[in-house]
Structures are given as structure tokens and as C-alpha cells.
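New to this. Please check this record:
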Amino acid sequence: MCQQELACVEDAFNAAKLLESQLPFHQHAKIEVIEYGQHRGCRRPSKDSEPTLISHIQAEIVLKETAIKIATEQAGRFILATNVVEPDKLRNEDVLREYKAQQSTERDFRVLKDPLFFTSTVFLNSRKRVAALAMVMGLCFLVYSLGHRALRQSIKRAS
């Protein structure tokens, strides 16, 4: 906003309000309008020419702590459901751990949903062929996982 040239003080405050409305987690703390005269054109101004009044706005931007806190709390919650109702069989921590362990498998199968993989165009006539394709895909995911594991271990050893 410091670089933007504005015609008057009112335009400067309107531009500051517009910018602040677009920033959900920030607000202006100190708004200062700086006005000065500037001659237009590429030549030296004549002695009797009046400079054009230009306004610049300078502001300090601070965080909106309450908005950030509310957004953080909203983003940090989700619901996990299970059909195990006895608390002594499965604790809340175990449900969360199992859910998080499932994410690596879901990430691997996300490849099947990718349009570049052309899974939707594969048509297999028999159940044996579907089972064979599932076996091949499972082996591919196993090799892929082992490659990731080996890479992570080598990075861990190197650092």
C-alpha cells in the first residue's frame, strides 16, 4: 500500500479499509496518510506550475488473536466413530492411533483415484482377473512402501 498513489485522504482511508476487509487474520494498528506535492511529466516543471497533491498510506499490520484462535479451534476438531462401545476394549487414544495408522494406506490407494492412472477405463470380465489385478496392485504398493521406508531410514542415518 505504501507504493499506491491515491488522489486524496478519503481515498487512502477507503483503500485501507478495503485491504483490511480482505485480511481475515490481520488488522491495521496505526494508519498514517502522507501527503506531498509532485510534478507530473518528464520535463522540468515551470516556475508557476502547481504540484499535484498525492497521498500515500502507511499502516502497521497486527494479528487478530481472537480470529486466529477461533480458526485454530475449528480446524483442530473432527469426529471419529467406532462400533466398539465398551470403553475397556478400546480407549479413545487407541481409536485415534488406529485412525492415524490407516492414513498411510489411504495415501497409497489415492493413486487409484487419480485420473492419470486410468482406473475407471479398466474393464475386467472375470473375477479371477479382478483378483489378479488387486494382487498386482497390492504388490506394487508393497514395493512402493518398502522404497519409502528405505529412503526414510537412509535419511535418518545420514542426519
